[in-house]
Structures are given as structure tokens and as C-alpha cells.
Amino acid sequence: MSGISFVISSPSVVSKLSPEAAASGLFDQSALSALAQRLVEAARRAGADAADAVAVRGVSQGVEVRDGHVEESERSEGDDVGLRVLVGRRQAVVSTNDTRGDGIARLAERAVAMARVAPEDKYVGLADPALLARDFPELDLLDPDIPTTAELERRAQEAEAAGLAVTGVSKSGGASASSGIGGMVLVTSTGFHGSYLRSSHGISMTAISGEGTAMERDYDYTSALHASDLASPASVGAKAGERAVARTNPRKVETCKVPVVFEPRVAGSLVGHLVGAINGASIARKTSFLKDKLGQKLFADGIRIVDDPLRARGLRSQAFDAEGVKVKRLAVIDEGVLTTWLLDCATARELGMTTTGHAHRGVSSAPSPGAYNLHLEAGTATPKELISDIGQGFFVTDLIGSGVNGVTGDYSRGASGFWIENGELAYPVSEVTIAGHLLDMFRSLTPANDLEFRYGVNAPTLRIEGLTLGGR
Description:
Elements: H1 11-16, H2 19-24, H3 30-45, E1 50-66, E2 69-87, E3 90-96, H4 104-117, H5 149-164, E4 169-188, E5 193-209, E6 216-224, H6 233-246, E7 256-262, H7 264-277, H8 280-285, E8 305-307, E9 330-334, E10 337-338, H9 345-351, E11 359-360, E12 368-369, E13 374-376, H10 383-387, E14 392-400, E15 410-421, E16 424-437, H11 438-443, E17 446-447, E18 457-458, E19 462-470
Parallel strand pairs: 7-14, 13-18
Antiparallel strand pairs: 1-2, 1-4, 2-3, 4-5, 5-6, 7-19, 8-9, 8-13, 9-10, 11-12, 14-15, 15-16, 16-19, 17-19
């Protein structure tokens, strides 16, 4: 194999590891890298024309507390490997969680035998070597500090205590804290060899207000790759409590057509519906309502939706995709215009295009397209200004169900939130349905200026005109 690129983890991270973390071996992927290399070599010896291997590391620990007591504490740790082989235009994938290296030859032989009897697919194949990543920018994905179980308990208990301290909160729905490490090694027979590790931390709390059938529930959470980027446990708990109390004694509203405003916590779902519809697999199958919209204007002037796999400390950041292709920042919507599909190599070949570096995969599956860190860029108006001229409208804080048809673009979801009267939030509302068509929603979308990067998909407060609100 030639042209090998390789990265285990940043030397700056390794140098910061505590003796305990270094001794754990969790940050060392060298054994997994060697195993993936041997799998590819064994596949070639067994008769594969091409092959790639992935090795995935997953480590997680978490605690859940309720009423100040630990209800559950768990830890999981494991490595899995997968081998994809190609014989002509036939493909097969096998996987195992036996990472000791025994039986490599047998696993490769089985994969090649499966490929020889698989149906032909003229679009399968490894990535063009010219597209492979050769540089690995420092993305600061790995927190060298692994919290103890006692520290996770402290975070969860502090969040719960803060939620219960909010006036009007009647009980706790539980609080949790977690941490983990996840990573991947990829080796291909065309000469790519790369790996990455990323850490994760999270805190959440659910609060309940009211009693009996009048109880209302809400939550808050924070997640980040580095613990130092988390919101404080106390702020998470307090926000959950305040949200639950604000929902107390909701009213019903009449069916009507009004402006609807989505708060940031739920606004990202609209970006998610767009990205699902521009997934190359959906386009190739002709099962997307946007299949004929490439290059067309879907949003107003000034609207940009960006996928950025290279954002430092991004929850889904990485330097290469699951086929080893170099990734880049990409505006999928630019000045309101749909600029691209999200493609892996196979869907790109089927559509007569070039991969956009969006391949994702697990150990037991072939690559398929998917997004990284998505965000809809902020506008200029404040959230208050965005609703100031609404005489009657609806402010959404929670969405229920998944009633979105990706083939037709029809949108219908259960929701709760607050009624808007004369530009102000007036009272809580529950048990309503929001309905419309995604193309109409995209055209009338206006963003506020309150974008924050908290999730995998981020958006500011969004206003959409003329949606149907199904009430009583």
C-alpha cells in the first residue's frame, strides 16, 4: 500500500493525559489500526479486488438520579471491526467484535465468498485516491480528562437540586450526567489510513410542575465534547424547572392560520427535514420532494445553511468521511438557492456527480450519505423583534411525533408552546397540530439573530408565515 496517511490523536492531547487515563489505553488506537490493516491485507490475499476496514471504539458511562439518589449507574466499553470487500462490481460487508486478531484470514475469506454471490452493483467501489484526505487539521475533539463516577453523580444531583428549587416545580423527572469516548479507524486498499477520537459530555434534567392530571413536564440539557464547554449543572436544572412551570395550566386554541415562531431548541428540526430531502440516497431513489430542485431558489435572499465538518470542537466534526474522502465546509443553501446534494461515492456515481465527502458507515454496513455540523445562519432581528408585529400567532417550544412526508413535503406535527398576542407571549398552549408544506415553509422563513452552537443541528429562532394550527 502506498500514499498512507495516518493520525492517532493530537500529541498535545496525549501529553495532557492523566496517568490514569494514559494507563487505561482508551486513547490508544494503534492496536485497532493494526487490526484494520491486517483485515485489508487478508482480503486482498483471499481474492478481493479492493477492500476497506473500519474499527470503531465506543466507551460510555452515565448515572441517573432521582430525588437525590442514584437510580442507575452504567458503563460500557467495546471495540468493533467491519470489513467491506469488492469482487468486480459485487460487494459484501462482514463485522465482528472479536478484536484479538484471531481468525482474520477466515473472516476475510468469508467476506470474499459472500461478495462473489452478491448481486452486481455498477455503482459500488472505493473512493478515487485523488479525493482522499492527506492532511488532518487539529479540530480539538478530545478532552483528556475522564470524569469519575462520583463526579457524574455530583453533576446530576446538582442539576436536579436546582430544578427542584424553582418555585412551582412539584417533583423531579430525573437528572443524568454522562461522558464517553468514540472514534474510528479506516484503512483502504487504495492507500488511506486514518483515525480519530472524540470525547463527549452531557447533563440533563426533567422537571414536573402541577399535580395529578394538571402536571406539566419540560427539560433542559447540555452536551459538548469538552466538559469545560458544558453549561453548569445548576443552570440546566433551573432552566428545566422554569420551562416546566411556564407550561402550567395550558389552554386550547381554535383552528386557525397564523404565523408560527420556532424557538432554537426545535428550529433545527426544519434544517433536518431539508437535509433529509437532499440526501443523495433519496435523490437516487427519486423519493424526495426536492429531487428536481437542485440549483433552484427555495428560501429568501440571504438565507444560508452550512454543513461544517471542520468546526473546532463541533459535536460531529472530523477530517475525513467514512470512505477516506477529504471533507470541507459546504453551504448547501446559499442566498436561498439549493447548491448541492449530500453524496457518498456510490450515490455520486449513480447521479453522475462527484462525492461531496458525506459518507458515513458503521461496521456492519456499506457507506451512505449523511451530514455533519449543520447550522442555519443568523438573521438581523432579535427574537422579540421577530414577533413584535404578530397580532395572533404561536410560539413553538416542543414538537411531538414525526409527521413529515419526505416524498411529498407535507408537514404535520404535534406541538406545544405559547400563544402570541399583540407581539407578546400571552399564555401556554398544548395539544395542537402545525401543518403546512415544507416548500411554502422554506420560502417564508425568517431567522432571528440568536444562533448558538449547542447541538448537532443549530438554528436561531425562526418565523414562518401562514401555517395551519389545528386546535379544538
